[in-house]
Amino acid sequence: MAIEVRIPTILRTYTDGAKAVEASGDTLAQLFADLDTRHAGIADRIVDNGQLRRFVNVYLNDEDVRFLDGIDTKVADGDNVTILPAVAGGMR
């Protein structure tokens, strides 16, 4: 099962600069574990203690997984997963 994972610029050092990579799994947790076997260290930037990191947003086919089943959200062949770190800061 091939699922496209879109990688944000800040995490592309783990994917040798690739904007999108493929991974497989039945849930996001399995998908991120598979992604980590192909691109060592990337899962630690997305997942912490079995949960999505607080400032990392993940979208499955343009839907925020926090409103689905979080890291236990089921994925299927042909789905698109987008990892998007939260952006904050600026001038006062």
Automatic annotation (TrEMBL):
Which top-rank group of organisms is this from? Bacteria
Write down the Pfam families for this protein, in alphabetical order: ThiS
State the InterPro entries in the record: Beta-grasp_dom_sf, Mopterin_synth/thiamin_S_b, Sulfur_Carrier/Prot_Modifier, ThiS/MoaD-like
- Its recorded name reads MoaD/ThiS family protein
What organism is the protein native to? Streptomyces tabacisoli
